[in-house]
Structure formats: structure tokens, C-alpha cells
Amino acid sequence: MLHAAEKLATEDNVVGFDTLNEPNLGMIGWHDLTVGSKFLKQGPSPTWFESFQLGDGFEKLVTNYNPTLVPAGKCLVNGNHVRAWKKGTACVWKRHGVWDVVDGQPVLLQQDYFRWRNEAGVRVPVDLSCDYFVPFANRFKNAIHKAVAERGGDPLLIFLDRNTDFEDASIGSCPTGAFSLPMASQKSFARHI
User: What would you report as the CA-atom Rg of the chain, rounded to the nearest whole angstrom?
Assistant: First the structure.
């Protein structure tokens, strides 16, 4: 995106850049890796823990939805025992102690592993927006604004889609106060519409 911003810095028809289209932060903040999504139900829909096992070469019977959101029983996934990991490499979540294989059976060791982060040696609950998304979006904004300014362009708008955490579809989960729009951007935007 920086390369595009540098090339387009002085183009009159460029209004701004979007950070990410419908970002979803996946497992960050997830309370129980054995529980599937309330809304992401289309076709074979493994839980996070089931997806770890599938990635490590296990075959699993997982809940199937067809059409979307309508339960259609279970279906076998990964019957050929294909691994996502390079030969000799363990699943990253096994290496972090989230799960393991005991007597040939997958065992979840930390069902709420992604609900926490480490702050000076203390486990604290994750705040999805404040801890991860807003800092990313601010770094993106600052980098784009710097690249455009260095090439003589006017500040551009930075578009921000709310985190599409499908477990909380309310607008209330949208981070507020993360950005302030420079007056130059407001004038520039007005000039283009």
C-alpha cells in the first residue's frame, strides 16, 4: 500500500486508502476453542480446535451447513490426512502448548489461550480493538500520510472498516476516537466530490 501511496501521492482523483476490507481478527479474544462461530456457518465448519487437528493431519467429522446457517449433519474432512505443516514441523499451536496429542488423541490444553495477552509477565484479557486493530490502523494511517507528504501530496482520507467480529454484529464494537481527520484531508475530500 505504501508503494501505491507513493506512486499516487499527487493524483487529483485519489481520495484515500482503506486499511483492510472487512477485517476479522480470527482467534484473538476467543473464549473457548471448542465452540464454533454463531454466524460463520457455511459448508463444513470446524471449531478452532478442530481446525488445528485438521491442519496437523487428523481427519475429523465436523458440523456441516447447507445452505448457510442450516445444519446438514456432519461430514468427514481431511480423509487423506494431509498436513498443513512442513514435514518435521509441529503445529504452531502445539509448540505454544495450546493442544497436544496424548495416546494418539488430540487434547486441548488451553481452551481460552487467545483470550489473554502477556503484559509484563501478567495475563490480562485481550481487548480486540484497543490491543490490536486500532494500533495497526494508526500505523497504517501514519505510514500512508508520511509517504504522501514526502512526495508533496495533500493528506488523504484513511478508511476504516470495523472489525467484522461475526460474534458481535453490533456497531457498538466499532472502535471510536481512533482517528482524527486533519483539516487538509477534509478540504481535499471536499475538493474531489
Answer: 22
Rounded CA-CA distance 102/107 in Å is 7
Strands, E assignment, the chain: 16-18, 43-44, 60-65, 71-77, 99-102, 105-108, 116-119, 122-125, 157-159
What backbone torsions phi and psi does residue 107 show, to the nearest 5 degrees? -130, 125
Task: Find where cell 495477552 sits.
Answer: 117
β-strand pairing of 71-77 with 99-102: unpaired
Distance CA 18, CA 144 (A): 10
The 10s digit of each residue's pLDDT in 106-116 is 999 999 999 99
Q: Are 71 and 136 in contact (CB under 8 A)?
A: no
Tell me: pLDDT of 119 over 60: yes
User: How many CB atoms neighbour CB 172 within 10 A?
Assistant: 8
Distance between CA atoms of 116 and 127, rounded to whole angstroms? Answer: 9
C-alpha to C-alpha distance for 127 and 114, rounded to whole angstroms: 11
SS3 29: coil
Strand partners of residue 105: 102
Strands 60-65 and 71-77, sheet pairing? antiparallel
